[in-house]
Amino acid sequence: MKQTIFTGSAAALITPFTVNGEAVDYALFENLCEYQINNGTQALVVAGTTGESPVLSKEEKKMLFRRAVNAAGGRVPVIAGTGSNSTEEAVRKSNEAEKEGVNALLVVTPYYNKCTQEGLIKHYFYIADRVSVPIIVYNVPSRTGVNILPETYRALAEHKNIAAIKEANGDISSVAKTIALCGDRLDVYSGNDDQTTAFLALGGKGVISVAANIIPDVMQVMATDRTRSAVLQLEYLPLLNALFCEVNPIPVKAAVEMITGKTQPLRLPLTTISDSHHNSLLQLVKSYSLVNNMI
User: Fold this and answer.
1) What band does 153 get if pLDDT is binned at 50, 70 and 90?
2) Which helix (H) or strand (E) holds 218?
């Protein structure tokens, strides 16, 4: 049985930028890390999809990992997004993140060039053989065009450094089969906020959450408390859906800006949320009494 990286809610952190997105606002980033920890989040995921990883430089990622590790101070694990569609590049990025003291790696499936199920196994084994911290395999077919099958997860579970999966394929039946095949050899986290309760019911360990950026306390309870999870899932479903009204992280950055009053620029190709979606999201933020409820 492998050691569980975290149980409950991990925040897929946004990356705050200075005006016009010219640089990373590291001071605000550290404040966001502290806010998450103080409000129940059990792990910090840095430079993932929500963190706009494709538009971050190598040096920016290194500094984000370093700042997150320092901010966490051992209180919660820091998980670094280090995936690539080049296996060798994924190893390089993972090794550099390890040097900054991260506790685990979030490695997305190869995208664009894609691969077969056999290719997925070889890709992840190659990386896992060359790192010393546990890997969370990230499956998000809507973005990558690649889907990991339950039988492939069973093969991946044999490697000692492949500890968990972030599953965002949207197929609950597939999730159930994966958990049945892998048992305690592979922890399973929801990659979709609106499926947190379903994963919990099936034996999942928690969620890697976009919504945790603005409701960390709610997501932690939703991901751990079997008696309250379904109630919260339904209560917050309008907000969870609204955070994906446009490409992530456009809506969640808009929500953080609404709540904190601090401008949250995006880097191209991402653009500012549309007026109609902005207005709808603002009404939801107000209805859940989230304004001025952050740093």
Assistant:
1) very high
2) helix 216-222
pTM for the structure as a whole: 0.97
Of the candidates 166, 205, 236, 253, the residue annotated as catalytic is 166
CB neighbour list of residue 250: distance below 8 Å, 6 or more residues apart: 266, 270, 271, 272, 273
177 is catalytic: no
51: Cβ contacts below 8 Å, ≥ 6 apart: 12, 13, 14, 15, 45, 64, 81, 249
Specify whether 166 is catalytic. yes
Q: Other C-beta atoms within 10 Å of 123: how many?
A: 22
Query: CA 291 → CA 7, 158, 171, distances in Å?
Result: 28, 46, 34
CB 163 within 8 A of CB 135: yes
All structural domains of the chain: 8-225 (3.20.20.70)
Taking the CB of residue 54, how many other CB atoms lie within 10 A of it?
Answer: 10
Q: Write the single-letter amino acid at 153.
A: Y
Yes or no: say if 133 and 107 are a contact pair by the CB < 8 Å rule.
no
Given this model, what pLDDT does residue 211 score?
Answer: 98
Predicted confidence (pLDDT) per residue in 52-63, tens digit: 999 999 999 999
Question: pLDDT tens across 193-213, in order?
Answer: 999 999 999 999 999 999 999
Residue 292: what pLDDT? 74
Annotated catalytic residue within 61, 124, 138, 189 = 138
